[in-house]
């Protein structure tokens, strides 16, 4: 071979090598392993062989990031096989995009560098571009960023026609061309690796956790958030603030986060906007901008006093959080009694077959929940059949089977909600039947 030809081949080799991701903090090997397993699975109808391929060629060869995302989202080998079998058009349409993951490494590294300049306590974190089974485009665990490439790298051409109702939101998500926001997503998730916790104790704290990551990502990248709820929220500030103020102390996220639940705004993930706006206002009011960034990242979101002070200083709400909390507790619906007997009785009729509980407010008939009482399962009042709510929504009935001389307990939980979405104050049914 002529020397000139050798030089050309060497140049092409080096060019190809430089095109690969050499950043040791951004790992993408799970993606190629997945497609190796995928191709073998598609070659056979033998379910035993398919299970072996997904285990041996993908999961067992997987990075720590794959192990983490499987843990975080409850993925199993069956999860992957089900997704592969049910959505072949989807996988065919997303393959090429997932294999582009390395292309984003340099840009991500640049933006993380910008983050380090405004937040000098930044701790290093690995970023894993891995493959999930359609339950997250990005999350964190154990201080690492975990990207579900099958969602994060989707675009407007990604096929969603095979998806069931539970995944219907992905059609809208894909139409937003999420691959264009890949760098932004990684900065958002990187911020989560720096926070004290990624899980809040109530809706308000969880919204600020997400909003802080979203606001910092906007500040670092200089680009608007790709989350549709942010733009929508700025156009409906007053209405969203009013409705959120009545629900922000919920112990779960309701329709505000991670949910396709129907709501009056016809928009999911509005909690991102609320948290974002709180942080934006806090930053706007601060004299030392870098200190404001540090404060929102290091805030103890599960400390009600610290969280309340942060929110009050932002000026987002018209009243202090403590005052809103008192009003919320005052307005919570309650169980006002049991139709068939007085709670706490020692002489309930053991032949009783139905129990009706009465509420102080009209309840939302879509919600209910029952839990164990302090005495546990041995004294649980078991429900044979939930009969439903009364027409006016002020009571609910369920059928039971009782025995003589037994103590029964059942906690009527905060999953019950009134028509404004305010959860019930938990109520313990506790009684003993006569002999």
Structure summary:
This protein is α+β, with helices and mostly antiparallel strands. Helix content is 46%, strand content 12%. Residues 5-20 have low confidence and may be disordered.
Structure, described:
There is one protein chain. 46% of the residues lie in helices and 12% in strands. It has 435 residues and is of the alpha+beta class. It has two domains: 26-324, no CATH class; 335-432, Immunoglobulin-like. Helix 7 packs across helix 10 (182-194). The chain is globular, with a radius of gyration of 26 Å. The N and C termini lie far apart (102 Å). Residues 1-19 form the signal peptide.
Give the helices and strands, then pairings.
Layout: H1 3-19, E1 26-27, H2 29-42, H3 47-59, H4 64-73, H5 77-86, H6 88-98, H7 105-118, E2 127-130, E3 138-141, E4 144-148, H8 149-152, H9 169-175, H10 182-194, H11 203-221, H12 228-235, H13 237-247, H14 270-285, H15 289-298, H16 304-314, H17 321-331, E5 335-338, E6 354-359, E7 370-371, E8 383-389, E9 395-400, E10 407-412, E11 427-432
Parallel strand pairs: 1-2, 2-4
Antiparallel strand pairs: 3-4, 5-6, 6-9, 7-10, 8-9, 10-11
Descriptive tags:
2 domains; hydrolase; 46% helix; Immunoglobulin-like; protease; 17 helices; signal; 435 residues; alpha+beta
Structural class: alpha+beta
Indicate the proportion of strand residues. 5-15%
Q: H/E element string?
A: HEHHHHHHEEEHHHHHHHHHHEEEEEEE
The assembly state of the depicted protein chains is single chain
Largest sheet: spatial strand order: 1-2-4-3
Number of domain units: 2
How far apart lie the N and C ends? 102 Å
Largest sheet: 4 strands, mixed
Globular, elongated, flat, extended or rod-shaped: what is the shape?
A: globular
Tally the helices.
17
Total beta strands = 11
What is the average of the pLDDT values?
Answer: 93
Radius of gyration using CA atoms only: 26 Å
Poorly predicted parts: 5-20
Helix content: 40-55%
Signal peptide: 1-19
Keywords: Hydrolase, Protease, Signal
GO molecular function: peptidase activity
């Amino acid at each position: 071979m002529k020397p000139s030809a050798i030089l050309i081949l060497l140049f092409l080799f080096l060019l190809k090598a430089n095109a690969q991701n050499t950043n040791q903090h951004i790992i993408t090997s799970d993606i190629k392993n997945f497609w190796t397993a995928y191709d073998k699975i598609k070659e056979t109808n033998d379910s035993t062989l398919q299970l072996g391929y997904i285990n041996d060629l993908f999961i067992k060869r997987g990075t720590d990031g794959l192990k983490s995302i499987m843990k975080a989202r409850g993925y199993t080998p069956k999860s992957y096989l089900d997704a592969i079998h049910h959505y072949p058009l989807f996988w065919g349409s997303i393959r090429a995009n997932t294999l582009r993951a390395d292309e984003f490494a340099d840009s991500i590294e640049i933006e993380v560098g910008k983050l380090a300049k405004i937040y000098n306590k930044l701790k290093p974190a690995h970023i894993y571009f891995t493959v999930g089974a359609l339950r997250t485009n990005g999350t964190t665990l154990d201080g690492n960023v975990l990207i579900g490439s099958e969602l994060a790298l989707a675009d407007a051409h990604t096929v969603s026609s095979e998806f069931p109702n539970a995944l219907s939101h992905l059609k809208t998500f894909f139409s937003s061309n999420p691959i264009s926001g890949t760098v932004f997503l990684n900065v958002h998730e990187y911020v989560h690796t720096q926070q004290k916790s990624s899980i809040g104790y109530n809706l308000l704290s969880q919204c600020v956790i997400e909003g802080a990551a979203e606001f910092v990502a906007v500040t670092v990248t200089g680009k608007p958030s790709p989350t549709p709820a942010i733009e929508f929220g700025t156009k409906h500030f007053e209405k969203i603030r009013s409705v959120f103020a009545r629900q922000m102390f919920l112990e779960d996220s309701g329709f505000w986060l991670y949910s396709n639940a129907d709501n009056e705004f016809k928009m999911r993930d509005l909690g991102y906007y609320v948290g974002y706006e709180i942080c934006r206002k806090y930053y706007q009011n601060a004299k030392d901008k870098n200190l404001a960034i540090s404060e929102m990242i290091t805030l103890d979101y599960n400390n009600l006093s610290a969280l309340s002070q942060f929110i009050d200083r932002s000026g987002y709400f018209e009243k202090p959080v403590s005052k809103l909390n008192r009003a919320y507790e005052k307005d919570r619906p309650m169980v006002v009694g049991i139709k068939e007997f007085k709670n706490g009785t020692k002489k309930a009729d053991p032949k009783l077959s139905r129990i009706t509980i009465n509420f102080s407010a009209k309840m939302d008939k879509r919600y209910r929940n029952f839990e164990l009482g302090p005495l546990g399962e041995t004294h649980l009042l078991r429900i044979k059949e939930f009969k439903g709510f009364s027409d006016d929504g002020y009571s609910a009935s369920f059928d039971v089977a009782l025995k003589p001389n037994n103590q029964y307990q059942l906690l009527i939980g905060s999953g019950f909600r009134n028509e404004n979405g305010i959860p019930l104050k938990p109520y313990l049914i506790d009684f003993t039947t006569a002999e």
